[in-house]
Prior knowledge:
single chain, alpha/beta, 7 helices, 14% strand, globular
Amino acid sequence: MNIVLIGFRGAGKSALAKILAEKLQMQLFSIDKMIEEKENKRIREIVAEKGWSYFRELETKFIEQVSEYDNVIIDTGGGIVENPTNIENLKKNGYIIYVQASLKDIKQRILNDPDRPKLNPTLDVEDDLNVTYNNRTPLYEEYSDFRVNTSTNSLEKCAEQIIDYLKL
Length: 168
């Protein structure tokens, strides 16, 4: 079985995935990194040049590929929940872990990060985060098998909670 981390940008998925991979000696696949490597560009550059829909197509292709593996950790981008096909593929062979963080903490972590492109170009950065967070949160909750919270627990504690939950 795979461990799949979902959650909003800035929640701590990538950092938590690295901790889990090290603790459990499992291979880690970061969907965003895979896309950047394939395109040889940062996500913000891909989105600026080819748009979100192109990025989402790549994301779905990589998710389809890595969901065929077994006993790996999959670090997903925040928007994968917007395509039910992604969740179907990931759930076939994976536990979906929702990495939660408060909107306040997410804003502190990412508002000044130039590598994170806006999701809705018609809104200012803060409104963009508010709208997207509120739209995606119910999807994260619906699709997850288990939740950890990086606003109330350290990443180390979240990793322990996941390991305990999965009885690994």
